[in-house]
Amino acid sequence: MSLYNRILVPVDGDAPASHALDHALAIARDQGARLKLI
């Protein structure tokens, strides 16, 4: 059973948001979760 099913990621185009997106993508791949970008 996955710990995460969906991950919500706020993005605004700056460097910290890009880093957060990379991290969220790695978690999503590992957990089989879906990403939703806002």
- CA radius of gyration: 10 Å
Name the average pLDDT: 94
Helix content: 40-55%
Q: Into which percentage range does the β-strand content fall?
A: 15-25%
Tell me the quaternary state: single chain
When the domains are counted, the total is: 1
Note the total helix count. 1
Query: Total number of β-strand segments?
Result: 2
**For the report, how would you describe the main beta sheet?**
2 strands, parallel
- What gross morphology would you assign? elongated
Low-confidence stretches: none
- Please state how the strands of the largest beta sheet are arranged side by side: 1-2
Q: Spell the H/E element sequence.
A: EHE
Tell me the structural class: alpha+beta
Short description:
With 38 residues, the chain is α+β, with helices and mostly antiparallel strands. Helices cover 45% and strands 21% of the residues. The chain starts with 5 loop residues before the first strand and ends with a strand.
Task: Describe the protein's topology.
Elements: E1 6-9, H1 15-31, E2 34-37
Parallel strand pairs: 1-2
